[in-house]
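In practice, a research group might receive sequence data for several interacting partners and want a quick structural hypothesis before committing to experiments. The following worked case mirrors that situation: the sequences arrive first, and a predicted assembly follows.
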Amino acid sequence: MAETSNYLTGVFEDEDVLLDAIKKVRNSGVKIHEVYSPFPVHGIEDALGYRRSRLSIAAFLFGITGTSLALIMQIGMMGIDWPMIIGGKDYIPVPSFIPVSFELTVLLAAFGMVGTFFVVANLKPWGKPKIFDLRITDDKHVMAVDLGKNNLDEGKISQILKDSGASEVNKKTL
Amino acid sequence: MTEERFEFKATTKRNLLIFIAVGVVLAIIGIVALNMGGGHHEGGGHGEEVEAAHHGFHWMQRVNANLWINIVFFTGLSLIGVLFFAIQYAAQAGWSAGIKRIPLSFGAWIPIGFVLMIAMFFIGGHDIFHWTHHDLYGPGGDEIIQGKAGYFYWPLENGSFPLFYVLRMVAFFAIWYLLFNKLKNLAYQEDLDGGTEKWYQMRKVSAIFIVFFAVSSSIAAWDWVMSIDTHWFSTMMGWYVFASWWVAGLALTTFIVVLLKDKGYLSVVNANHLHDLGKFVFAFSIFWTYIWFSQFFLIYYANIPEETIYFVERWKSSHYAPLFFLNLGVNFFFPFLVLMTRDSKRHTRILKVVTPAVVIGHWLDITLMVTPGTLGENSGFGVLELGLLFVFAGAFIYVVLNQLSKAPLFAKNHPMLEESLHHHV
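A structural hypothesis for the assembly, expressed as C-alpha cells:
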C-alpha cells in the first residue's frame, strides 16, 4: 500500500468514444490499469477483455460452509449432546433441520460474498481507495494507465490516449 | 426482419404417428399382461396377499387412473403455455419477443384436454374419485365427505349429479379457451397489421387471463387432484399443482426452442435467450421444491394424523417411497446442480438433457399425486403407463407443431423484437 505508482489518466466525454478508445489503446499495445465511469457502460467488460467474475464460486463455497455448519450444530446439539424426542420424531429429524440449514447457507453466502467483494474491490475499512479524478462521479469517464507496467514511454502513451479521443491527459501519482 | 415459418414435414408427422401407435401397442400389451394375472405382483408376497390385493381390483382402474394423470398433466402444460405468453405481455417483457409463439401454440391442446377430461370424468370417474360413490351420502354414510358434498353437488342433492363440479370444469375451460383464442388471433393479426395497437390489446387480455388463471388454476387443482384424497386437505395444493405444471411447461418450451434452433429455425434466438429460459427452469425447479417442502414440512412437523396420512401413503410405503425420493431427485437435485453454472444454461447440449428430464419428472409428480388415492398399492410403472404417456406426449407434440406451422415462428411486427435481438445477459 505504501508503494506509489505513476499513472496517466485520459479523460473522455462520451461512452461511445470511450468504448472505441479502449479497443484502440489496447490494440496499440498499452495495458490499461482500469476505466472509471459515472454510470454502467454496456459492453465495457468485453472491450477491456475482463474474465467473468469468480464471485459466484466464492458464494458457493461460503454457502456450503453455512450448510455444513448448520447441520453440524443441529446434529451435535439435538442428536448427540442432549438427545430429546420432540413431537414423536427421531433424535435426528433431518426435515426439521432443513429451514435452519437453508437460512445459514443464505446468510453465510450473502455475508461471504459482500465481504469478498469489499476486500477484492479495495473497499475494506483500512484500505485507501485510489481516486484518479473526482469528475468520475459526475460526467467524465477516466482511463488510467500504469506507467510502471508499460514499456512505452510517457509521451507516446499520452499521444495514443489523445489520438483515441481523450479530451485531456493528466499525470497522477498514487 | 424476414418471416420464418415452421414446416410441419410429412416425415415428422409420420414419425409422431408411429410414436403414438407404439404407445397404443404398448398400452394394449400392458392391459393384456394385467389380465393374464402377471403385472407387478408376480415377484413378491405370498399367495393370499396377492389374492387379497387383486380382489375388487380391475385393470380398468389402472387404465383410468393413468389416463387421468396424463389428461391433468397435458392440460396443465397447455395452460402454462398460454400463461407464459400472457405474462410476457403483462410484464412488458422484451427479451422473449422471438420465442413467444412456441408457448402460445401449447394452447391448441385446451379443447382436446377438455373433451378428454369431461369424457373421462363421466366414464371413469368412479375409479378416480371416491366422492362420486352414492352410498357415501345419506344415513350411515361418510360424515366427513358429506360435510364436503356441497362443494361437488350444489345445488342438487348430495350424491346425485355433481353439477357444481362439472359447471366449474366447463366454465374454466370455456374462459381459458376464449382468452387463448383472443390472444392467438391478436398475435396473428399483428403479423399483418404491424404497429403497437395489438400489443396494447394483448396486454389487456393477458392481464385478464393471469388474474382468472390465478384463481381457476387453484380451484382446478382442488377439483382434479386434491379431491381424489377426499378426506384429506392441504392449503398448499393449488400452488403445488401449479408449480409442477409451470416448471414442466417452462422446461418443455425451452426444449422445443432448443430443438427448433438445432433444426436451423429461430434465427432470432441466441445463447442469451437460452440462458434466460434456462434460468426460468432452474429458478422454478427451486420454486417447486419450496412449495413441495412447505406442504410437506408443516404436515410433518404438526404430525396430525388426518394430515400426515398423505405422506404416510407415499413416504412410509415401500411401494411409493422409491418414487417419492426419485421425484425430489429428478425435479430438484438434478436441475439444481446441473443448471447452476452459467455455461450449462447457454449450451444446448445440457439443456437438451435437463429439460426433458424435468418434464418427465413432473409427470411423475402428478402420478404421485393421483395414484396412491386411486390405486393404492395396485399401481405400478409398466408398459401400460409408458404406452399411455407415449400416446399423450405424441399427440400433444403433434397438436403443438401443427399450431406452430399455421403462423410465422416469431412475430416480425412485435414492437420489442429489436430489443430482443440485442438481448444480452
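Before designing any experiment, note the following. Confidence is low (pLDDT under 50) at residues 41-54 of chain B. Chain B has one domain: 10-129+162-421.
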